[in-house]
Amino acid sequence: MEVTEARAFIVLAEELHFGRAAERLQMGQPPLSRLIQRLERSLGAQLFNRTSRQVELTVAGKTLIEPARDLVAASERAIESVKSTITGQIGTVSLGFAGASSNAEVAALARELAMRAPRLRFEVQSSQFADDSLKKVLDQSLDFAIGLWEFLPSELDALHLSDDEALIALPKNHPQAKHDTIQMAKLAQDPWINLPGGYNSALQNRFRQLTLNAGFVPRRQQTVPDSWTVMLLVGLGMGASLTLSSVASSIPADDVKFLQVEDPSNTPLPLRLVWRRDALNPVLETVIDTATALFG
Q1: How many domains does the chain fold into?
Q2: What is the pLDDT of residue 170?
Q3: What's the domain range around 281?
Q4: Which part of the chain is the HTH lysR-type domain (predicted)?
Q5: Mean pLDDT along residues 254-263
């Protein structure tokens, strides 16, 4: 049974009148009659009793109603799925991010996509370092990444989401903690607690730039795996750290004072959404359009 036959059968079964059924189907009565006759021949059963006065369903016809409806519904779902895929409303998309610096943006994007494209599957992967997510976008194991990077490979396109400010985190009992701003040179003798950094780590490159501008090399550095550990150790008085305004606002740190850096080179660090420009498809474009409307 073909979908067109099933649809015609259902309408005739509801109307029990060839004229009204043909009108609903927007076709003539003779083509409808031939369509039903063809269906009956293919099934080897009479579906309707026809007289000059009325049309009635046979037992076989009554039995066929639900299967015919299921066939039409399945066809409509298939058509809708294809249309939704073409328009980017159905599919799976993956996004990587690292640390507390992008938590708010990831959550906001996920909420907005859930409203705009509820049938889109949005998979989020957290990694320790932003560079990890960037590499996965390049090798196409991730569709998107959000992070702070010093440089972006030429294969990628990017959307600016927000700006992050590099701040100094000090123990509250530190002599400089009574101020709201600080010159880096005043911390030349302090031990430092840092996150691991690579050549593309925006925060660690900023730290090297600020200490170079201040004319000193940090005398002791302790490397820890994440911002939560950084704030814990700073709060315990084990050193100072260069961190981010997003971290200061998202991680509880009652024993830590955050200070702005008195250095004109300490410009805002851009948080960006990146993707491969040669991997665009309707699903990815839905995410980009949503992010642009949300953050652009």
Answers
A1: 3
A2: 98
A3: 91-163+270-295
A4: 1-58
A5: 97
